[in-house]
UniProtKB/TrEMBL annotation:
One Pfam short name: DUF6314
InterPro entries: DUF6314
Domain DUF6314: 3-88
Organism, scientific name: Cudoniella acicularis
Protein name: DUF6314 domain-containing protein
């Protein structure tokens, strides 16, 4: 499986601190098209709260047109879902 690592940085925003999570790209039955996104998932345990995240990446040719992430957060301190969409 292909993965992409996402890292926290130190306060200078130039020095790597520690791993946030790794995106696991999900298989698609056919190569993704402009109307079918590339999908990935990841998880991050923050003390006792689990952050599950689903990603979708929409391309037009080789250009990333938009992407979204949806967090589902569960644990003793948190219970919510939030979605963000980024467009060019």
């Amino acid at each position: 499986m292909d993965t992409l690592s996402v890292w926290f940085t130190k306060a200078d925003h130039k020095t790597i601190d520690y791993l946030f999570h790794e995106l696991e790209f999900l298989p698609t039955p056919n190569p993704p098209t402009e109307s079918q996104p590339w999908k990935a998932k990841a998880s991050h345990l923050c003390i006792e709260d689990l952050y599950d995240v689903a990603y979708e990446f929409y391309f037009k040719g080789a250009t990333l047109e938009s992407w979204s992430l949806e967090y589902s957060v569960k644990g003793p301190a948190k219970d919510y879902t939030i979605k963000s969409v980024y467009r060019r």
